[in-house]
Specification:
Length: about 375
Amino acid sequence: MIEKDFLPEPYNQFPEKGTVEWKAPSNIALVKYWGKKKHQIPANPSISITLDTCATKTSLSYQKKTKGNQFAFDLYLDGEPKEDFKPKITTFFERIETYLPFLKEYHFTIHTSNSFPHSSGIASSASGMAALALCLMDLERTMLPQMEDSFFKRKASFLARLGSGSAGRSIDGGLVQWGHHEHIDGSTDLFGIPYPYEVHPHFNNFHDTILLVHKGQKQVSSTVGHDLMHGHPYAENRFAQAHTNLDRLRTVLATGDLEEFIKLVESEALTLHAMMMTSMPYFILMKPDTMEIINKIWTFRKATQTPICFTLDAGANVHVLYPESVKEPAIQFIQNELVEHCENGHYICDRMGDGAKKIIQGNR
Ligand code: PMV
């Protein structure tokens, strides 16, 4: 599919008012996206695990306006007006208006809330943009009722991606691949697709315990970080490596080779942070406790042969990954040795989830 395929046919009905509500999950990348081109096109393909517990719920109430010459919306986070989020939503609307030409026809009231604490250091942009994109698609579907489910999801992912790249991976469940890769059928830079190949049962119900090492605001945003990949001395090698790692991961996912999985996933996490450390200006998002946790995971793994590993997002928090079969010892280890490195002892037990869900529909 190409961008043009997401331009709608003319609408022949505009509902007067209504409310839709969706819940969209967060995701954690195994092969990371870091660096992008114009229009949120990723510099390299990536793959992520859709999470279950960490999610955003968004309700969108819409009311037809008499004049349709500008965007009009109110935004609430946990029931409180959230003025400082509004520019981000306006930018999002500007980017997607071509594909949703009804946007200026309505006044929207957006209520959003995250299952994870706002200042947990967990990015809410992926789940937040995905939930909003799904609400908007739901409204578009009332105008184009013939729309197929598969198209609905693709376009939701396409729109979410224009809000925040990784949000395009927060629609489907399980493993989601985003970005063109010559050996992955159906892969595209435009939207995320469910990973299309065999996945060994070892990876069913995979766990991700998120250790909240640092809950404050990051010193460098993802937007700035992506930008610093332009002219980065290692960028081309890094982008090529992501392609190679996706090839390797395909074999790992099919065979259930956890040893290779661990090597690949940890190397990806450290490479992401290596790119940050070698940007100009350079920056470090890991904290001393991030390093302590990583070292403890390596020691524990070596001593017990438990297939447990870590990955990192663009921040100091550590995602501890392990299969269902070692859940008990892994949780025990996390509680005994890792929780002391979390801010106020906070961590979130999450796992692979089955994707975004609609909550309600109907007029209010
Ligand atoms: O979606 P963005 O623009 O916030 O970028 C997120 C990039 C990483 O989370 C660091 C990696 C990834 O692939 O999710």
